[in-house]
Amino acid sequence: MFNNEFTLTGKSPNPVSIISKASNLSDGENILAGVYDHGLITICDNSRFDFSTLKDWSAHIGEEALPLAYTAWGEVFCISYSHKKLYWLFPIENGASDLGSSAFSILDNIKTDQKLASSLLDIERYKELSSMLPSLNYGECYILKPLQILGGNEQDPSAYQTIGLENYLSLVHQTHDQIHS
User: Rounded CA gap, 38 and 176, in Å?
Assistant: First the structure.
């Protein structure tokens, strides 16, 4: 289903996705790592992304968490081996939603289910802004400068830049630490 809804538009250096390694996903082997729909969603590979990618977010998702996919806006669909659950990590909101242990079907429905497309992909904002923003390469997402939590305007296309997902997650976490300390 995922491959029917999304088009692979940018390849990962390693096409083996972390999703394909997740034991309880039946269709995961068919989903290649890479950039889909020009960055709307990216499926993570098992060589670039590892447990260190999400280490700053362990309070929300556990110690042993791997990113499975992420959106253009840096929100991450991940699996926590320590909690034995799936999560949707919302870095800007400094939180995560517990998806349980059998929510892999979310990837199959994320684009066609209007509620999911709106809330998780923010597909309408993506459609409005993507033609004015630089294309995303594998491993990149958009960052709003300044961050929305520091007063950035998410409707201003000139306020966005591309950034590596790992750097984005670290920067947002550090910002939250500074605000809340």
Answer: 29
